[in-house]
Amino acid sequence: MRALALDMGGTHIGCGVVNEDRLLANTSIDAEGASSLADLLPVVTDALRALLLEANTTAKECVGVAIGFPGIVDACHGTIHSTLKKYEDAPKLDLAAWAREALDLPLRIENDARMALMGEQYAGAGRGVENIVMMTLGTGIGTAAILNGRVVRGVHGHAGCLGGHLTVKFEGRPCHCGNVGCAEAEASGWSMPQVARAWPGFPESALAKLEPLGFRELFTHAERGDTVACDVRERCLRVWAANAVSLVHAYDPDLVILGGGVMQSPEPVLTFVREYINTHTWSSWGKPQVQAAALGNMAALLGAVPLLTEEMHGASIKLQ
Ligand SMILES: [Zn+2]
Fold this sequence. Notes:
Blueprint: E1 2-8, E2 12-19, E3 22-30, H1 37-54, E4 62-69, E5 71-74, E6 79-83, H2 95-103, E7 107-111, H3 112-123, E8 132-137, E9 141-147, E10 150-151, H4 183-186, H5 192-197, H6 215-223, H7 227-251, E11 255-259, H8 269-280, E12 289-292, H9 304-309
Parallel strand pairs: 1-4, 4-7, 8-11, 11-12
Antiparallel strand pairs: 1-2, 2-3, 5-6, 8-9, 9-10
This protein binds zinc ion (ZN).
């Protein structure tokens, strides 16, 4: 079973052609600074058509298009309900019509973190596990949960995917979402540079010369012994670990998967979060496993087949 997949991230759009749990071809479109999704759709269409050629297949051989979107979506009806500082025009677009007209294919949309977890369960670190929580540490903090083998969505589509907006510091930094002190507002790709710049001694730190400042730079300079980098890294680790404990307490998983750009080098994040969970969770049965994502930034693309074939409200997508 083949499918087309899109992963609309904060800085790029991942595009792929998949066959079951394998990626046949993929590419990435730069979306840094792009605010309008409508402007990007023709580029996306061209990229998907080129990938179909590269994969030596046709749209007719695919079951549909699956989109992972960084916002609140209604997966059952294929609509986008709410965005957060990215692709603000998306709720007004008829993406199903775009898929039909551009590719003659049906469409399903899911929150990007949920689709990444669906990919990891189908083809990666979560194979064979029925109760999983995943945290995707990137520009924001995406989360998702699968309980008893079913993706958790909730009546309004909010459940599981807003875990990055759980409060870790109630007098903390304001977040785009309206809350204060969310994990995302305290330790994500967009908030970490603000935290670092406000840190005592920042002007003397090697980090002060870096623009842009990302986790790669932060971790590199922490390893070199830069005091501010060490302190900010430690704070990020504690925020992610505290957030993970809250997710474990909320969802009772057997497995916690850590993914996203930060996990391209899993240590020291993996060991820190694992030990923190082992120390700080209340559990009657043992402790959940903590593993790094196995599929890297391809996880959401590989969630395409499980998303397109999932039965929702008693109906699977109308396959052609
Ligand atoms: Zn928030």
